[in-house]
Amino acid sequence: MINIYIGPLLLGLLLGFVLGTRIRDVPQSGLKFTAPVYLVFIIVAFIMAYELGPFPYYIDVPLASGFVAAAVGIILGKLTFGRGTKPQTEN
């Protein structure tokens, strides 16, 4: 039987969502958030979560589920409420 611990998932998702809303595109840097960037981000997040392993004494999945939830939250926060691509003017 697989136990799913909701605490780390909710906390990771909430923290990631808040961080994702703060990400903005800076035209001077030349970095763009396109679909391949999100794909690479998710792949790297899953690899890191596998290497971190589950939280101590948790037997749900062999991943750090809170870390994966935070990565998903970052993407959701960026896509829903992320700062737009309007050029930022400096005064």
Fraction in helix: 55-70%
Based on the structure, what is the oligomeric state of the protein chains? Answer: single chain
Tally of contiguous helical segments = 3
Instruction: Give the overall shape.
Output: elongated
Q: Report low-confidence residues grouped into runs of 5 or more.
A: none
Question: What share of the residues does DSSP label as strand, in percent?
Answer: under 5%
The topology string of helices and strands comes to HHH
Strand tally:
0
What summary fits the major beta sheet? none
Mean pLDDT: 82
Find the structural class using helix and strand composition: mainly alpha
Q: How many angstroms does the end-to-end distance come to?
A: 59 Å
Instruction: Report Rg.
Output: 16 Å
Protein name: Energy-converting hydrogenase B subunit J
Transmembrane segments: 6-23, 30-49, 55-76
Keywords: Membrane, Transmembrane, Transmembrane helix
Give the topology.
Elements (H helix, E strand, L loop, with lengths): L5 H16 L13 H18 L12 H17 L10
Helix pairs in contact: 1-3, 2-3
Organism: Methanobacterium subterraneum
Keywords: Membrane, Transmembrane, Transmembrane helix
Protein name: Energy-converting hydrogenase B subunit J
Describe this structure in words.
This protein has about 90 residues and is mainly α. The chain is built from three helices and no strands. The chain has helices spanning about 5-20, 35-50, 65-80. The longest helix is centred in the middle third of the chain and has 18 residues, at about 35-50. It is elongated. The mean pLDDT is about 80.
